Amino acid sequence: MNNQIEEIKIQFKKELTKGKILTWKKLQEICLNSLIDYESIAVLNNWYKQVSELRFLEDIPKNTEEILFHSSDSSEIIIKGKKSFFGHDLTNPDLEIVLQVISIQNNIEWNYKKPFHSFYLSAFNNNLRVSLVHSSITSNKRSKAFFRFLNSETIPIKNYDQSELLENMIKDKKNVLIAGSTGSGKTTLVNSLLSC
Fold first, then answer.
1. Are the beta carbons of 12 and 52 closer than 8 angstroms?
2. pLDDT by residue (tens digit) across 6-43?
3. Closest among 186, 188, 169, 170 to 178, alpha carbons compared
4. pLDDT tens string 94-149
5. Are residues 52 and 21 in contact, defined by beta-carbon separation less than 8 angstroms?
6. CA distance 185 to 46
7. Cβ–Cβ < 8 Å for 121, 95
8. Which helix (H) or strand (E) holds 31?
């Protein structure tokens, strides 16, 4: 039965290359036509949810800042500035599928011609900025993904140092350049300024 499951996964991947994500209903039809037993259908259903519904993000600790995938076996989670191994059930082929699904769902052309994309999405009540790096430009020929968890609460501008200066620049419609390292709060500051 494992061979039949792998064949169905291959069909799913082929449709992805055409920019289409097969629904679970369509996969069930393929299973019935292939005479796959119910246990194998349950295994396939679990796999489908992992690759198409971002289930690896479902039970993330609340104070997670970022999840980094350098490959399926080299992934990290950053919580309160501390990196640790991020455990999940994705294999390298599954991770590639997940990233293709995400790009299709967000109408992003992500391939060797356009190997880098950064965009926003929501998953399991989390707002994320996702950055994808295609396998065609990485040294290990594996795609990379970075899921940055964004602060959902806007910090009032009065809570910042130099708040009066910032408020005046916004009132005077001045151009403002915001720069800083990863995780320094650039997006949070921009959201605070936009709220003015």
1. no
2. 888 999 999 999 999 999 999 888 877 777 788 888 88
3. 186
4. 999 999 999 999 999 999 999 999 999 999 988 999 999 999 999 989 999 999 99
5. yes
6. 36
7. no
8. helix 24-33
